[in-house]
Amino acid sequence: MSDQDGSSAQFVNALQVAKRAGVSRSAVSRAFTPGASIAPETREKVMRAATELGYQVNNLARSLLTNRSRLVGVVATAPELGFRAHLTAALSKALIKRGSVPLIINTGTTEEEINAAQQALFGYRAEATIILSGSPPASFVDLAKRNGQPVIVIGRSEPEVDSVLVDNIVAAQQAARMFVAQGFTRLGLVGSRSATPSILEREQAFCAAAQEHGAKASIVRGVDTDYRGGREAARLLLAQAPLPQAIFCVNDLMAFGVIDHLRSLASQSTPLDLAVVGFDDVPEAAWQAYDLTTFRQDPDAIASAAIKMLDRRQADPFVPPVRARVPAPLILRNSFRPSPDRFESL
């Protein structure tokens, strides 16, 4: 990179700051080291000079000296998709606030992509790894543990690893009870053949609760937990007769696909013809086109729980692993709004 006069552009270094401030190079280092001994007036001169020059600490060089990278790997399959995008953003914000550097690792789906993702994560000597629900293989957990890294998993459970999970079971059971209390007996479950741990928990809890309360749940599954998977599941529902009176979708993206497909191809609309409930409460759930009743996953609350676990694990690497459950409160909108008297009795 060069400027207009042909000279090479370079980062401002600590020696330039020292000259501008009229102090030693070591004084600059102490000024930027938390807890280091330095006179207040000297530190003020260094900071003023650094601001004038636009100097930033070279954390890469510092990590080589301290053998601590401050990189934290955030591992996900398709981190841009649905709720995972919002959780990845929340984790990145929380890690930066903590003083860490988030390293987003998209595992991909092929063996070649997964191997490349593992090399990127462990080649940069990340100090910790956070693995999101989805399909990142257990090999990420094993490699992290063998490299002495703290590991936090979100939305899944792994042996001897700290984990953060959402109350999938409680929410799915509540969905089934709400439908039955409203008088619905023909229920639908829209799931996914991706069969991630969180999705399986929601599917199994909903179907078990429906059966317990005397309702029949028709189960259909799309290829994946996305909009296209929702439309595919809706096609399967249309092949059955009659249609369910109420449908629980394992996430909001699938609910959007179900609503659009049934509205466009079967003239079935919510809430007039059928009730639909989702899971996640992504921002699009509040759009007028969907106005989706759903269970909310709070990405900031999940990220905060993961950061607390990370701090705890780094403070004591041998402390027993813990599992945290984050509530998923019901967000009522117009795709399903139970009668107040029946809702209060749940």
TrEMBL record:
<dbReference type="GO" id="GO:0000976">
    <property type="term" value="F:transcription cis-regulatory region binding"/>
</dbReference>
<dbReference type="GO" id="GO:0003700">
    <property type="term" value="F:DNA-binding transcription factor activity"/>
</dbReference>
<feature type="domain" description="HTH lacI-type">
    <location>
        <begin position="12"/>
        <end position="66"/>
    </location>
</feature>
<dbReference type="InterPro" id="IPR000843">
    <property type="entry name" value="HTH_LacI"/>
</dbReference>
<dbReference type="InterPro" id="IPR010982">
    <property type="entry name" value="Lambda_DNA-bd_dom_sf"/>
</dbReference>
<keyword id="KW-0678">Repressor</keyword>
<dbReference type="Pfam" id="PF13377">
    <property type="entry name" value="Peripla_BP_3"/>
</dbReference>
<keyword id="KW-0238">DNA-binding</keyword>
<protein>
    <submittedName>
        <fullName>LacI family DNA-binding transcriptional regulator</fullName>
    </submittedName>
</protein>
<dbReference type="InterPro" id="IPR046335">
    <property type="entry name" value="LacI/GalR-like_sensor"/>
</dbReference>
<keyword id="KW-0805">Transcription regulation</keyword>
<keyword id="KW-0804">Transcription</keyword>
<dbReference type="Pfam" id="PF00356">
    <property type="entry name" value="LacI"/>
</dbReference>
<dbReference type="InterPro" id="IPR028082">
    <property type="entry name" value="Peripla_BP_I"/>
</dbReference>
